[in-house]
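FORM 7B: Structural annotation worksheet

SECTION A. Query
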Amino acid sequence: MSFAKALDLLRLAEMAAARHMGVSLSEIEAEFGVDRRTAQRMTRALETAFQGVETLTDEARRRYWRLRGDPRLLHARGLRDGELAALELAIQRAGREAATHEVAALSSLRDRLLATMPAPHARRAEADAEALLQAHGWACRPGPVARGDPALLPLIAEALKAPHVMTIRYRGPNAAQARTRRIEPYGVLFGIRRYLVARDPAARDGRLRHFRLDRIEAARLEADSFVRDPDFRLEDHAACAFGSYHDPAEYGPVVWRFAPQAAAVARDFLFHPGQEVTEEPDGSLTVRFVASGWLEMAWHLYQWGDAVEVLEPEPLRRLVEGHRRTDLPALP
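SECTION B. Predicted structure
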């Protein structure tokens, strides 16, 4: 067996041991980039190399391979420097986002993992991770970010777990004084501004609203719980908008065409998770998706100067038409 295949087998053993149901053939194909026949050979190698491999079948008749027994061989691999560096980078990013709850949770996970390793391995992993972090010291999020209360995110995280009702004092865009509101939290959207996605039971329409975290002056967790909509998915909700702002009245098809000189740059962007991209005969690039938030789209399109044309919707085309500059020295 080659060195690379041995490492793949150890990685497969980790997956089979770490997951409650084990690992399926489709998951092996996705993880290692192999076809079905190779995935089947890998499961046979797993059964040969490790004792305690069990096979399970779920309700859809999919088979899973689960590794049970003495985990010392897997622990001997330890925590790799790249994995520890990724954890450290995640802790640093969470700290910059003022996500103190995530900082505490990730730090605790890092410490527990290091505690399971032999001391020499732990010291080596920490030293190697430090070198990686220094090499990747530029990996941060530049640009403006709205300030907010760092104690608010841990409180929201606690509310989302139960889930619990929250009472907030919220200052609207035109309100001189904040209003007290009882809300049912559903999630948080991160961007230049952070928004709490929540339902206001007092509102008659029952739709989800976005509350800017920097406008929440006070918040507390209530003992009352609520029943979250089982069909709600934060990813689907976020995809309804180009950025953080949702407006049902603006929701609809969006079509942008990037000029040939900008097509290569635009091709590397994911403008929306549901986008469709078409290569045009003249070398231009057409991007289609469905979303709302014309103002945030306009802010982004300004960076492309005259290298992008809005085909749909018409109100967005009119919004940007007078601001397509020709003198911008670079594309985004």
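SECTION C. Observations
The CA atoms of residues 39 and 230 lie 35 Å apart. The chain has four domains: 3-76, 81-135, 152-238, 248-321.

SECTION D. Sign-off
Analyst initials: ____
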